Amino acid sequence: MSDELRLAWAIARKDALCELRGRQAAGSTLFFAALVLLLFGFALGPDTRRLAEAAPGLLWLAVVFGGLLTVARLHQLEAEDGALDELARYPVERRTIYLGKALAGGMAVIVLGAVLLPVVGVLYGIDLAPAALPLALTVLLGGIGFAAVGTFYAAVTVRMRAREVMLPLLMLPVIAPLLLGAVEATAAALSGDPFGELGAWLQLLAGFDVVMLLAGAAGYGYLLEE
Amino acid sequence: MENAGFVIAAYGVILGGTALYAAVLLRRLSAACKALLHTRRGAEGTARRDEDT
Amino acid sequence: MKTRILGLAAVVALAAASVNALFMVPADLNQGDAQRIMYVHVPSAWLGYLSFGVTALGGLAYLWKHDLRLDALAHAAAEIGVMFTAFAIWGGMMWGQPVWGVMWQWEDPRLTTTALLLALYVGYLLFRRLTDDPRRRASRAAVVGLVAAVDIPIVHFSVEWWRGLHQGPTIGSPERVLDPAAPMQFVIALLTMLAAFTLAWAWLMVRRYQLARIELETEERARLGRISAARRAAPATPAPRAEEGVG
Q1: What phi and psi, each to the nearest 5 degrees, are found at residue C106?
Q2: Among C132, C161, C167, the residue to mutate for chain A (most A Cβ within 10 A)
Q3: What is the DSSP string of A84-121?
Q4: Cα torsion for C55, C61, C67, C68, to the nearest 10°?
Q5: Does the beta-carbon distance from C154 to A211 stay under 8 Å?
Q6: Which of A27, A124, A156, C90 sits CB 3.0–4.6 Å from A55 for a disulfide?
Q7: How far off is chain C from B32, nearest CA to CA, in Å?
Q8: What pLDDT was estimated at residue C245?
Q9: pLDDT tens-place string over residues A119-153
Q10: Whole-angstrom Cα distance, residue C25 to residue A141?
Q11: Cα torsion angle, A16, A22, A27, A30, sign
């Protein structure tokens, strides 16, 4: 059991290192997501009050857009070099590969969320400090959930025609509950949780994460074999 | 009937759409049947030719 | 032959149930005649979800048995299901405008879940269309369908939670016709429509599955035809070592 976890971690580390060394692709994605937040400002501003109200939704939309690029990239590089087939031939449980990749994806999306939070704070005039802990939890749970689903669908679409549109098309309906939960939790955290609903939303996120990690791990094997 | 327009729109599209789909389905079915028979005969012809050579 | 009887029964049942729903059942006290739309909206939604169940289970069965006929069943159910789901949303919108004053309500968990179901269906069908190898397509589509099926209850649950927390003004829910206190005539009208629609669904499924089987065979023959044509086209290459040996 711990062997599997160590293997998964090894795969995750490998992916993370590829990300860090990979010709600034990861950095470009971060910048793109920040750009999206900026553009939202043009689309919905200049009334800061309206932007502040919409901020939780806008933040998570930016995370989704950036996240889509990230999970696609984590599978694309290997597919192009044929490394994905190599990986599939190793005597490793498919679910271990999935967990490793989902872990890497999760870390990348969490970093994305963490970087975008201060951007939101500045651009939409929101004080994040009092809500720091619940916000961190939301980003953590949201990032894991997105990566759990994204890793699965990235493998589904990796060699397809029209894969750039198929990944979001397949993924976005499935992450609707995640988006809902993350946005509501963020909004509750930022407003000081007047109705005491933060815990409930975080529970929804956690439940979603567990279900999707299990489903993804179960199904991933069928995606690698021919 | 009040709001008759909405009721007609609902029933019309739903029942009419089902009927339309059914009609198209029957047409697709007959076309596919013909195509398959054609392919089967073609395969038999090729098999006979292969036997001759 | 049996299928033809089924089809005929469906047509008769639909006609009778529709006449009943449109002209014989009295109008609702609050919603007026618009409530009659529920008699086509609810069965459509029911068939949309039923079809998705067949798609998901057919996929699961395929992963277990690797019989492409199960995949054909899943495909047939998906095509029929996407149609009924679209009908359900249309019916919901036609009902919403007179009753709610708007065609769309974010807080209605049924409507939003059904819209997401439509999106999941479309994704599934597009995915199938863009994958060529039959076995690969079957196993991948099965997994895609199953993950989508797992997602649907989560979606419904979260939207219900969403509504509960925002305390929106729900002026009457579309499912009031399913209210246990509803008058007997309403219940009978709905049940007869449900039965009629299900008969129609069964007929459509049989025919669509037949079509899927034929397409499967045609596809397989075409593939084999290309392989044998390629073999015939390639000339026999003599082994050079053998030639030299003889010479």
Answers
A1: -65, -25
A2: C161
A3: HHHHHHSS--HHHHHHHHHHHHHHHHHHHHHHHHHHHH
A4: 10
A5: yes
A6: A124
A7: 7
A8: 42
A9: 999 999 888 888 899 999 999 999 999 999 999 99
A10: 51
A11: negative
Using the Cβ of C151 and the Cβ atoms of chain A, whether some distance falls under 8 Å is answered with yes
Mean pLDDT value across residues C52-72:
95
> Whole-angstrom Cα distance, residue B42 to residue C8?
36
Asked if C6 has any chain B CB less than 8 Å from its own CB, the reply is no
Query: Which residues are registered as beta bridge partners of C46?
Result: none
Mean pLDDT within C43-60: 96
Residue in A66, A166, A78 with CA at minimum distance from that of residue A111: A66
Calpha distance A158→A76 (Å, rounded):
6
Nearest 5°: CA angle at A198, between A194 and A203?
A: 160
Amino acid, single-letter form, for residue A103: L
Q: How far is CA A44 from CA A51, A122, A124, A168, in A?
A: 7, 15, 10, 24
> What pLDDT sits at residue C244?
43
User: DSSP of chain B, one letter per residue?
Assistant: -TTHHHHHHHHHHHHHHHHHHHHHHHHHHHHHHHHHHHHHHHHHHHHHHHHH-
Q: Which residues of B touch C221 (CB under 8 A)?
A: 36, 39-40, 43
- Which has more pLDDT, C171 or A85? A85
DSSP string, C1-14: -HHHHHHHHHHHHH
Contact (Cβ atoms closer than 8 angstroms) between residue A109 and residue A70: yes
**Alpha-carbon span C75 to C72, nearest angstrom:** 5
Average pLDDT over residues A104-111: 94
The complex scores an ipTM of: 0.86
* Coil vs helix vs strand at A127: coil
